Amino acid sequence: MKQGFLGHRLGGAFGKTGTNVQETFELFFGNDPAVLEDVAAASSTMKFSPGTAILSEEDESQSVYYILQGKAKTVRYSSDGAEVWLDEIGPGALCGEMTALGASARTATIVAASDVTAAVFQPQTFRDLMQRHGSIGLQVAKLLVARVEKTTQRMFELAAFSSKGRVYAELLRQARPIKDSPHSKIEKMPSMSAMARQLNNTRETVSRTVNELEKEGFIKREGTELTILMPDALRDLTFS
Prior knowledge:
By secondary structure, the protein is an alpha+beta fold. The chain is about 40% helix and about 25% strand. It has helices at about 20-30, 35-40, 95-100, 125-130, 135-160, 165-175, 190-200, 205-215, 230-240, and strands spanning about 5-10, 45-50, 55, 65-70, 70-75, 85-90, 95, 110, 115-120, 175, 185, 220, 225-230. Strands 1-2-9-4-7 form a five-stranded antiparallel beta sheet. Strands 3-8-5-6 form a four-stranded antiparallel beta sheet. Strands 10-11-13-12 form a four-stranded antiparallel beta sheet.
């Protein structure tokens, strides 16, 4: 995979051109000026073009990345090299912190889905930030708890849901609410093959299940967009 290239060090002052950067830092690190200045001083920026690996499972480094601009996808690769889509992340997402905190290896590969700008922290520098600022340590703890909950939920779904139920649950998980509407939407629907690999399903089952939902009026598809017209009814169907 292509590599990114190192940009400038953020330094201690955001300045006029750094307003958006400061606002993005606030999404995770809070709005305490002293904390934000310390975070900025401790990081440098790196830019990645679409298709570039931000970090990979084979990466031996322990650097921590924070997405400032753009979107990226979290993936894993099967034994035959097939890409398994796990999640999409954007501004405000922290990644790579587990190896900085002692994990033996990266657990996934993160690939830029668009032009991405990320703040980069060296592992000891990031640990120092956590020690100096309890608010950062708390945010990292909350992030790790959320990831454990998500993993636990996926394990439960694999064990307890039918093959169709796992598709219903995944559509609901990926969809985002539409403002002032009872509907929810997936703006960029992953391929049926990608969903199948993620859900331990077959492509045929996923495709057939999605087609049935559309035929029965639960969802509507337009290009790569998928709108869930009856989220509550689909949720009930998942547990039936």
